[in-house]
Design goal:
Order of helices and strands: HHHHHHHHHHHHH
Helix content: over 70%
Shape: globular
Largest sheet: none
Number of strands: 0
CATH topology: Na+/H+ antiporter like fold
Number of helices: 13
CATH class: Mainly Alpha
Radius of gyration: 19 Å
Length: 307
C-alpha cells in the first residue's frame, strides 16, 4: 500500500508543480477543466460500462451489495450529522461529505487485497466500487452533498442524473450484462489502457486543485473528522453489518477483503465529482491527500486489531 501511495504522490506532485510554476503561462484552472471533462464525460463512463457489463450477478454479489449499501448509508448519516453542525460553506460541506463516506476501494484497495488475499479478491473490490462509488454515490451521496448549498433541489437533481455520463455508462453496462452479451477479448485491452490513463490524470487534477493560500491550521483541523469517519467509522460499520445482521453470511476471506476495501482513504475520482457539481474541489483534494497519509497508519492498526 505504501508503494501505491508513493506512486500516487508523484502524480499529485506534478499537479502541484504545475499550479505553482504555470508552464507556458497556462494556469492550473485552465488545464484542470478540460482534464476533468475528458475523464468524467468519456474515460470513466466507458470504463464503468465495460466493468459492469461483465460482472457476475449472483447471490454473493447481492449480499456484498447489501452490506456495502448499509455501511455506506450509516457512514453518510454520521458525516451529514457532523457537517450540518459546522460553519463551513455549503460547497465545502458537500465535498467533505463525499471524502468521508466513499473510499478508494478499487484503485488502492484492489492492489492491496491481491497481495494479502489473492488475485480472486479483485472481483470483490470491483463489486464494492460499483455499489458504493457508483450506485450510492450517484444517488444519496450527490443528493446529500448538494443539499448543503442548494434548496428544493429534487427536480434539478433528477435532471442532472439524466445527464450524468457515468450513470448512463453503468446503466448500459447493466443492460448488456442482463442480456448476456459477451465482449470480445480485445476489449480487456481497452479496459486496461483506460485504467492506466485516467488514474494519473485524476491524480494530477488533485494536485492542480490544492490551494496553498489558506489557513492550514484550521484546514487540517477540519480534515481530522473526515479522516476519522473515512478510516474508522466506515470500516466499523462494515464489520458490524457483516457480523450482526443475520442472513448476510460471507466467507471469512471475502469478509476480510470487504473490510480492507472499507479501510481505504477517500476515493480518487471524487475530485471530478466536485468539479462537475461545483463543490469545493480544493478541500476535497486536501481531504484525499490527508486520508491517504493517515491510512498508512490506520490500516495496519485495523489489521492488528482484527487479524
Amino acid at each position: 500500500m505504501q508503494n501505491a501511495l508513493l506512486t500516487f504522490s508523484v502524480f499529485v506532485a506534478f499537479g502541484l508543480v504545475w499550479r505553482i510554476a504555470k508552464p507556458g503561462g497556462v494556469t492550473a484552472d485552465a488545464i484542470q477543466r478540460p482534464l476533468i471533462a475528458l475523464i468524467h464525460s468519456m474515460l470513466l463512463p466507458v470504463y464503468v460500462f465495460l466493468v459492469v457489463g461483465r460482472m457476475p450477478l449472483n447471490a454473493t454479489y447481492m449480499r456484498i451489495s447489501l452490506i456495502v449499501i448499509l455501511a455506506t448509508a450509516g457512514t453518510l448519516a454520521v458525516a451529514w450529522f457532523w457537517l450540518g453542525r459546522t460553519s463551513l460553506s455549503g460547497q465545502t460541506k458537500g465535498a467533505l461529505l463525499l471524502a468521508s463516506a466513499f473510499s478508494s476501494a478499487f484503485f488502492l484497495g484492489m492492489p492491496l487485497t491481491r497481495i494479502i488475499v489473492g488475485n480472486w479478491s479483485s472481483r470483490v473490490a470491483v463489486d464494492y466500487m460499483l455499489i458504493s462509488n457508483i450506485l450510492v454515490l450517484f444517488t444519496a451521496g450527490i443528493y446529500l452533498a448538494r443539499s448543503f448549498s442548494e434548496s428544493n433541489q429534487v427536480t434539478r437533481f433528477v435532471k442532472d442524473m439524466f445527464r450524468e455520463p457515468i450513470a448512463w455508462g453503468a446503466l448500459a453496462g447493466l443492460l448488456v450484462n442482463m442480456v448476456n452479451i459477451r465482449f470480445p477479448g480485445w476489449v480487456r485491452g481497452v479496459e486496461g489502457m483506460l485504467l492506466l490513463g485516467f488514474i494519473p490524470l485524476l491524480l494530477i487534477t488533485v494536485g492542480l486543485s490544492i490551494n496553498w493560500q489558506q489557513n492550514w491550521g484550521q484546514t487540517l483541523a477540519d480534515m481530522l473528522p473526515v479522516a476519522v469517519i473515512q478510516l474508522v467509522v466506515l470500516p466499523l460499520f462494515i464489520y458490524l453489518v457483516m457480523n450482526f445482521i443475520p442472513g448476510l453470511g460471507l466467507g471469512l476471506k471475502t469478509q476480510k477483503v470487504l473490510l480492507i476495501e472499507g479501510m481505504m482513504p477517500a476515493m480518487v475520482w471524487g475530485i471530478s465529482i466536485c468539479e462537475r457539481y461545483k463543490l469545493d474541489s480544493s478541500s476535497y483534494a486536501i481531504a484525499f491527500t490527508f486520508t491517504s497519509v493517515l491510512a498508512c497508519v490506520s490500516v495496519p492498526v485495523w489489521f492488528n486489531f482484527l487479524y
